[in-house]
Amino acid sequence: MGHPGIKGFFRAAAGILSYPQDPRSFAQMFGALSSAHYTRGRITRVRRETPDTVTVFFTAGDGWIPHRAGQWARIGVEVDGKRIWRPYSISAPEHGDPSITVKAQGLVSEHIVERAAPGNVLYLERPEGQFLLPDTPTELLFMVAGSGITPVMSMLQTLMPRRPDHDVVLVYVSRNRESCIFHDEILELADQFPGLRPVFWFTEERGRLDASDADALAELCPDHADRVTYACGPDSFVSAVEDLAGSHGGTPVVERFDVTRQFSGGQRGEVRFTRSDMTLEVGPDETVLEAAERAQHQLPHGCRMGICHSCLVPLTDGAVTNIRTGELHREPGPVQTCVTRPAPHAVFDA
Ligand code: FES
């Protein structure tokens, strides 16, 4: 599980996440908490979901705002002495301790999957996001692919006990049964609340599901066009759901888990950060944010998918291309560094 090189790195980083166990250091930790800028969380339990996915349950300290089902939060993890932040959807239902469900993809997620243990400390920012349950009861269709199930699991666990007869269809695409996160929990939820009808689609058995194909979807959910639709997962999957819903006048509520890089350009670029007097080469598939992080230059960021605008940094010279739209941006002013790359030179006040 995980990249072998990363495993070696994790071994080298052993102990970094350890929570102090002796009472004195425990007290020191909480003494430090009063002046800490960020809320801290303490891991209470780690549950293996699939071979490469775990759910990390934690209690949150003062300053944590209770999450709403479907929201995400930036979580900070100490890796090799550096605190690195990534956004994670919260998989726990509302009104309880939070949890995140993490698939081993990328440095921070692999670190969490390999090393998270009860007692470890996490750093927390407040939950945010507008992927939320409707205020009024309505028939729902959740279209989910892969780890897109994580915020939806929070929604289902929140919604079904609140309205046990609620009419909800979940179409959940995953590679196979083994990689299907929360498979058994979803079946148990459906047993308990008959209004929930899960439809599992395993691509190894049935091939790819074209979520923009009305006939294919009608076989799984005949009245899909009459339901309020939620979609969560990879950009291409969510866009397909949007295309189909749009064709019958619907606007689904969506959350994307990645960015389709349609306009990477295939060429290297160069970015300069004037405040830190740093010039970096940017790889053909890298964003400005990723290039900065590779050089351990911290830039602000949140969702990393062009949604939240937390990553705005002033462009002072040169140009950038948006990797999703291909739009060229030359005017000096704030730029989303998570979805742009230099074209081919860009200068930032950072
Ligand atoms: S980090 Fe959210 S828009 Fe860039």
UniProtKB/TrEMBL annotation:
Signal peptide: none
Domain FAD-binding FR-type, first and last residues per copy: 36-134
Annotated ranges, domain 2Fe-2S ferredoxin-type: 269-350
One Pfam family hit: Fer2
Keyword annotations: 2Fe-2S, FAD, Flavoprotein, Iron, Iron-sulfur, Metal-binding, Oxidoreductase
PROSITE patterns: 2FE2S_FER_2 (PS51085), FAD_FR (PS51384)
Coiled coil residues, start to end: none
InterPro entries: 2Fe-2S_ferredoxin-like_sf (IPR036010), 2Fe-2S_ferredoxin-type (IPR001041), Beta-grasp_dom_sf (IPR012675), Cbr1-like_FAD-bd_dom (IPR008333), FAD-bd_FR_type (IPR017927), FNR_nucleotide-bd (IPR039261), MRET (IPR050415), OxRdtase_FAD/NAD-bd (IPR001433)
Needed cofactors: FAD
GO MF annotations, alphabetized: 2 iron, 2 sulfur cluster binding; metal ion binding; oxidoreductase activity
PANTHER family cross-referenced by the UniProt entry: NADH OXIDOREDUCTASE HCR (PTHR47354:SF6)
Protein name (database record): 2Fe-2S iron-sulfur cluster binding domain-containing protein
